[in-house]
Write a structure and sequence with these properties.
Length: about 180
């Protein structure tokens, strides 16, 4: 087997081991929820994207238009991993201001003003992650979903490029679809 085929397997095994060793439901043998899987992805995705021409910030911002349950899970994962001082998580307010955001998460296609948020995020060079079936079609970059009880994702490399975002080849190789 060439390293081309081993790398995705190695990354998958490392992610599985990290989930098993992490404090929380996986470590206690409990079933991991969809919210937990998506929150873990959101917390870790910053290590796989670059915004060329922009200095790497000392702290990152995750902005969410999501349920309280999901928002709480993201905050919990940040605390469990000791990342609370480096990554701030906040809910998008009614003004939908993207100031201080590096990643914008939209939980569904039905988020009010989603089209405007995605357009502004693209113009500001922000990574967008979402869960809706039409998220990529509407201008999102990474779509998360469950497939056979496992987290899967699609990536729009075109939209990422238009926003000036470079996605690591390791992450691209794990995507189910790349557009």
């Amino acid at each position: 087997m060439t390293s081309r085929y081993l790398h995705p397997i190695t990354v998958s095994l490392l992610l599985a081991a990290a989930l098993a060793l992490a404090p929380g439901p996986a470590a206690r043998g409990e079933e991991v929820t969809e919210e937990t899987l998506k929150a873990l992805f959101l917390v870790n995705v910053l290590g796989y994207v670059e915004r060329p021409g922009r200095a790497r910030p000392d702290a990152y911002g995750i902005c969410m238009a999501a349920s309280e349950r999901f928002s709480s899970e993201v905050r919990s994962q940040l605390q469990l991993r000791g990342l609370g001082s480096r990554i701030a998580a906040r809910d998008l307010d009614s003004a939908r201001s993207l100031d201080g955001c590096d990643v914008v998460f939209l939980e569904s296609d039905t988020v009010r003003g989603a089209g405007f948020i995605l357009k502004e995020a693209r113009e500001k060079g922000l990574l967008t992650v979402g869960s809706g079936d039409r998220f990529i079609d509407r201008g999102g970059i990474i779509r998360l979903y469950l497939k056979d009880k496992k987290l899967a994702f699609d990536i729009s490399a075109r939209t990422a490029g238009a926003a000036g975002i470079k996605i690591n080849s390791r992450l691209l190789s794990l995507a189910k679809k790349v557009y």
